[in-house]
Amino acid sequence: MTDTSPNPIEPTLDEAVQERLTAVVQWLSNQAELPLSSLELAEILWLGPRIQPHPTRRPKTPTRTQAPAPQPANPAPQQADPAVDAGARNEPPAPLEPPAAPSDATLPWFFPATPQTPAPEPAALLLPKVMLPDAADGAAALPVRVAEAPPLGDRFALLQALRPLLGRKRDPLRRRLNETATVERFAESRLLLPVLEPRLVPRFEQVVVLVDGGVSMQVWHKLAHELRQVLNASQGFAQVRLVFLQPQDLDGGQGAIPLQLVQPSCSLLLFLSDAAGRHWWDGRMFAALESWCRTRPTVLLQMLPIWHWPRTALVAGDRVSVSNAAVAAANGAYSASRLDWWEEEAPPGSGFTLPVILPDRAALAGWSAMVMGDPETATSGVLLPGPKERRQRLEAVVGDGTPEAPPPPPSDRAAVEALWQTFRQVASPQAQRLLMVLASAPMLTLPVMALLKEAKVPESTTPLPIAEILVSSLVRRKPGQEGISDADQLQFELLPAMADLLLERLSPGDRLDVIRAVTAVVEKRWNRLALGPSFEALLCDPNVVPPAGLEGAVQFASVLAGLLETLPGEKARQFTQRLRQGVGLEPADPWPKDQFVFETVEFSTAQLLPIPESETITFSTARYQELELRPIQFETARLTTAKPNDPTPTTTSHQPAVAIHRSEGSAWAFFEPLQRNSLPPGATAAAADSLTLTMVEIPAGTFLMGSPPNEPERADNEGPQHEVTLESFFISQTPITKAQWEVVANWKPMEGEIWGRNLDPEPSMPQDLEPFVLMGITITHQCPVCWVSWYDAMEFCNRLCQRTGRYFTLPSEAQWEYSCRAGTTKQFSFGETISPELANYGGNSRMGDGPNGEYFRERTTQVEKFHANPWGLYDMHGNLREWCADDWHICYEGAPTDGTAWLNLTSKEDERLNRGGSWLDSPSSCRSASRSYSQPFRAINNVGFRVVCVHKNPPVNP
Fold first, then answer.
1. How would you classify residue 458: left for phi > 0, otherwise alpha for psi between -120 and 50, otherwise beta?
2. Which residues contact 719 (CB under 8 A, 6 or more apart)?
């Protein structure tokens, strides 16, 4: 019977719940492959009580018998450890004892019953790949894979260190659609006009991780690949390239840059090197570094510890502290402060500054902040003098050749102890601890060293402790490995006297602790599917005779059979079964029949096939050039006037002497055909017919917009003068002609194109101009089109945008005046006055010292009839006024200074701006600064337009 009397010492409800939860959490943690987070534990505990038990899964009165632990029928023989004294045995480490748990009655029904005293779990020995047996020994061993520790440690922490470099900048050539502003403009104006804003691009377009190709740098190739993956994963750089530099790429000391880095798109260079190769000591590497430092931010990631730098070619420079106040500037902008503060600063131009840092997070964080112009941050580096002084310093160390070969490692105990004491004085504490751990390993390879570092020196996130050991002269490469090219296959060993010295300081308990720690790391990094970077290891059955060549091998770690049961494949299952049979234990039943009811379920399965190794392929690529610029030629003119020599008072009959100075000009432009075959491929500018838009490139620059207060016949709406800075753009060489208008107006929408409004191919004339038609005056198709409203002009641009894929629009007022002035500051682009020989304007009056106008033209003239301005644009003064994209404002107060159109969507004024003067305007209305306006729906006989094209992709000059 069960005693139901109250227990005076029974725990309270809270204590009982706490005890029960502790047992549940302990059981879940033991069953999981990885530690469970607090959220995962909470979800399991929430879900457990809500699962309805099957009526047959749990009997009403559960009875569980405690079976005695089975005794091994055939105890496994134990191997002798030659590195441990006779009293110690080489046994697998026992698993950690779990804390005492309450009886099974306190656990939820869905947890399986467990014996109170678990039987000892058999274990297999783990050995590195270099000790793998041949095919004949496969019965006693099983190859497995163990994931490698990342060379750079925590990727997220490394990205945090590089955060200053991940900023973005405004692209001066590319723009993106601002959907919100476009919708707001459409709601106000009922016109579907796109609003563009500069696109944000990475500050550094292309980052190159350059790896020195010296022999000693082979062990750092994995770190270089890891660094490239981290930079790519940051999404902060447009492209990250990994380049391996071979010494033969450098040209005889002249510093020729390897072909991979010729592109100017390389904006940041990270150079991984130990500065110890022959190409460093003969000066070739310094010449190449100087070329790189002058064009981009460059840093040397020195793979060796700081105390080893004086033994490298960096001895040619002076140790300095490097600072910088300019954002993303090349090394030439850096400031160098000598560490010896009493010495004088180096004179300007005496050499170049090269930041030199270790590949760890702290050093990378300081260097990143320094590159981005943080004046409070400095990093380590060297100040390298000119070529002559560098050569003298290198020759003072190595003479006329390369450094002498290092002396053979010492073999006597006294010399090794001296090296050990020196190493303890200069090496980091992590490297000293790792060297002690290496004495417990049966085989030293780079993967094994990394595994030991992660197990016993977890606070070190970079391979720097391994580098300190490799260059300490206390570790050497085993003989007979000259033909091995894979750095992971290279075997190292401690100097014999050094191994004896360290083993004296290690107790058997210390060595067993190392095995336990490595076992924990191996179980954590067990790579069951062989995905990602990993190294191959060998599981050995301790119950059978070791394979040939492994007699007396010291175990490196142990893996429990319970972990091996999770491995896929028949070989792993058979190996686990042999391992359990060797100690007389039956495999544990993970699904007790008294707790689970099984049903037959049909399902489909699949086999996972290994993916073959990637192969390098070569291919050629091309870049589509959206705009191809071609040169155009034109004739421009400059006008000068002189007063008559007659001393008598000037009368109206006196005409000033006018001198026109003609000259040839050239510019770059692209051609946009409006009809098929109107411009054959490869045609020159002369071959462009009248139906081809000639779009002239206007260079970026800054100018003073508006007119000064003392300019003759100036209007108040032309001020105040203000400085405007514009990016480069394209503008049509002439106003849009009637022929060009007629073609676009007759376009039929193609698939995906939507026209906003209908366009009249032949704008009609109102009744008040019929007398001109009756007089026989004709307007040819090469005259600029008029009688088009502002809305018509915008629809013309809309059709060009959809048909060509480029962004056409009306010029902003700033773009128009900037193009009209063409770098001049006078009232007209050709001087201080105007002449009928240079423009089509009206009125018999003259302006200043200029001649009278010719009103008898009384109509528009053909485009290109007069001279172009200095940038190759025709009819900027006269012929027709031209619509601009801006709304009308009575002055320039509050006008934008970046060349964009000045729009006021909230204003009720319905007036649009036009510029340039026309055939019926006075000379003063044709000035560069003159402004006018009209309502956007009005079509007038003296207003036309020209178009601009804004960069969407950078043009490529031939």
1. alpha
2. 706, 707, 708, 709, 891, 892
CB 207 within 8 A of CB 238: no
Burial of 82 (0-12, 13-18, 19+ CB in 10 A): exposed
Sheet containing 807-809: order of strands: 630-642, 657-673, 692-698, 729-732, 948-950, 807-809
742 — pLDDT class (breaks 50, 70, 90): very high
What are 630's strand-pairing partners? 669
Total length of the chain: 958
Are β-strands 692-698 and 729-732 bridged in parallel, bridged antiparallel, or unpaired?
Answer: antiparallel
Overall average pLDDT of the 434-448 stretch:
76
Name all contacts of 254-261 with Cβ < 8 Å and 24+ positions apart. 254/284, 254/287, 255/284, 255/286, 255/287, 255/288, 255/289, 255/290, 255/291, 256/288, 257/288, 257/291, 257/292, 258/288, 260/208, 261/208, 261/210, 261/292
Q: What distances in angstroms separate CA 391 from CA 63, 73, 387, 394, 816, one per listed residue?
A: 88, 76, 6, 5, 58
Tokens of 550: 């492994």
**In this structure, what is the dihedral angle of CA atoms 360, 361, 367, 368, given to the nearest 10 degrees?**
140
Q: Provide the pLDDT for residue 716.
A: 92
How far apart are alpha carbons 859 and 842 in whole angstroms? 9
pLDDT > 60? residue 100: no
Give the closest residue to 522 by CA, choosing from 77, 195, 92: 92
Any idea which of 255-264, 423-432, 833-842 has the lowest mean pLDDT? 255-264
- What digits encode the pLDDT tens for the residues 247-256? 766 654 443 4
If phi > 0 it is left, if psi is from -120 to 50 it is alpha, else beta; for residue 848 that is left
User: What whole-number distance in Å separates Cα of residue 935 and Cα of residue 486?
Assistant: 78
In 774-895, beta strands by DSSP E: 807-809, 881-887
Q: Are 372 and 328 in contact (CB under 8 A)?
A: yes
Q: Is the pLDDT of residue 452 over 90?
A: no
- Whether the per-residue pLDDT at 531 is higher than 80: the answer is no
Distances in Å between the alpha carbon of 528 and those of 150, 524, 565? 18, 11, 11
Give the model confidence (pLDDT) of 756-783 as tens digits: 999 999 886 544 344 444 344 445 788 9
Other C-beta atoms closer than 10 Å to the C-beta of 58 total 13
Neighbours of 826 (CB within 10 A): 15
Please check whether residue 521 is in contact with residue 454, taking contact to mean a CB–CB distance below 8 angstroms.
yes
Q: Are strands 141-147 and 534-540 parallel, antiparallel or unpaired?
A: antiparallel
The dihedral built from the CA positions of residue 486, 488, 489 and 493, taken in this order, carries a sign that is: positive
Whole-angstrom Cα distance, residue 807 to residue 799?
10
Question: What letter represents residue 726's amino acid?
Answer: L
Q: What is the rounded CA–CA span in Å between residue 575 and residue 565?
A: 9
**Mean pLDDT of the 781-788 span:** 92
Q: Vertex 683, ends 682 and 686: CA angle to 5°?
A: 155
pLDDT surpasses 90 at 497: no
Nearest to 783 by CA among 741, 747, 817, 819: 741
Cis peptide before 720 (omega within 30 of 0): yes
Contact (Cβ atoms closer than 8 angstroms) between residue 308 and residue 464:
no
Give residue for tokens 């039956």: 586
The three-point CA angle 235-237-241 to 5° equals 110
Confidence grade of residue 423 (pLDDT, cut at 50, 70, 90) = confident
Amino acid 103 reads: S
DSSP character for 150?
P
Predicted confidence (pLDDT) at residue 629 exceeds the cutoff of 80: yes
The answer to whether 928 and 878 are in contact (CB under 8 A) is: no
